[in-house]
Amino acid sequence: MADTTTIRVTRETHARVTKLAAQRHETIDQTVARALRVLRQDVMGRDLAIPLTDDETAWLDADAG
Q1: Where would I find the H helices in the chain?
Q2: pTM over 0.90
């Protein structure tokens, strides 16, 4: 880890992420990075689950030729 910074979390959160990292045989940085990726993927999944608008459907059904 070449460049680092500090974030403030409660002692409880620190203990939980430390325990999780140990269980996964990862560094805390790796565990937090993985958690952030999962959260981003969750947001993408929720966005993709929303039905398309009529305009979006029309655009997708348009003839590209």
Answers
A1: 11-24, 28-49, 54-61
A2: no
Cα–Cα distance measured from residue 29 to residue 4, given in angstroms and rounded to the nearest whole number:
10
Give the residue among 18, 21, 41, 39 at the shortest CA–CA distance from 30: 21
Q: Which two tokens stand for residue 13?
A: 């959160």
Q: What is the pLDDT of residues 32-65, one digit of tens each?
A: 999 999 999 999 999 999 999 999 999 999 987 7
Residues 60, 52 contacting (CB under 8 angstroms): yes
Distance, CA of 21 to CA of 38 (rounded, Å): 15
